[in-house]
Amino acid sequence: MQDNEIHNSVELSRISKASFSSPSVKYGLLAIDGGGTRGIIPATIIEFLEEKSGRNFWDLFDFAAGCSTGGILVLASMLRRAKGMDLVALYRSLAKEVFPYQRYLPISEYSPERLERLLKTEFEDMTMSPQLQDPLTFVVTKRDTETKPFLIRNYDNPSSKHQGDVGWKCFEAARATTAAPTYFKPLQKNDHNYTDGGIGFNNPVELLYDEAFARLSSDLNKNTFAVNECPIAYIVSIGTVLKNRRLYMYLGSGN
């Protein structure tokens, strides 16, 4: 992918340093979709945004969410604070090590040991600790046979309408959110099976909005906000779709 392909699909005027300046009471939100090895696309966007904004990617957001491969990217960029160029290198390694061959039958799973080894190397013993909430981060998975999402967080959110847990090791959270059925076996933890949340929640932006609004409502002790009081300053949602050699990224901003 060439730089000019990204330039053609991203409004550079909307990602200047000024774009990320917001009142301290408002949140900048980040959501990254699932998409397997196409995670190299958002990794490339992250590298691009760091270059153009002149800032570290994790400094641009207060709340972040990822699903499946987007979960790996959110955990690595927001909590481990990996640079964009390191994320691109990570996905090149992931493609070679975790998916060494092309499967021809959907019933044949890939070895989870390869993925787990890579994730343990990437995250070591880092945990999604409530003491490390900069930024607030969660990944999306599903538990057992439930159809609703299960959020693995680094923060408490008693006002949330979504079930979840806090304090997992990062490599376990990454393994759970990437356990796509027919690709990898579920992650087993605390007598439960956890699988990829991509079926139904591949784009976690709606869950992210719910979580951020619930958290801010609780922090500010308000159930509703006037239009000019909206606690969301901006939302960046990064997908993994490459269409006609063009990359699409949507930047949204609330007033």
Overview of this protein structure:
The chain has 255 residues and is α/β, with parallel strands linked by helices. It has a single domain, classed as Cytosolic phospholipase A2 catalytic domain (3-Layer(aba) Sandwich), CATH 3.40.1090.10. It contains eight helices and nine strands. Strands 1, 2, 3, 4, 5, 6, 7, 8 and 9 form a nine-stranded mixed β-sheet that branches. Strand 3 (136-143) and strand 4 form a beta hairpin. Mean pLDDT is 80; it is low at 1-24 and 244-255.
| SS field, number of helical segments | 8
Poorly predicted spans: 1-24, 244-255
Structural class: alpha/beta
* Main sheet summary: 9 strands, mixed
> Span from first to last CA?
33 Å
**Percent range for helical residues?**
25-40%
CA-based gyration radius: 18 Å
Number of domains: 1
What's the order of the H and E elements? HEHEHHHEEEHEEHHEE
Shape: globular
SS strand fraction: 15-25%
CATH topology grouping: Cytosolic phospholipase A2 catalytic domain
State the total count of DSSP E strands: 9
Q: From the 3D coordinates, which CATH architecture would you assign?
A: 3-Layer(aba) Sandwich
Q: Quote the average pLDDT.
A: 80
Give the name of the CATH superfamily.
Cytosolic phospholipase A2 catalytic domain
CATH class: Alpha Beta
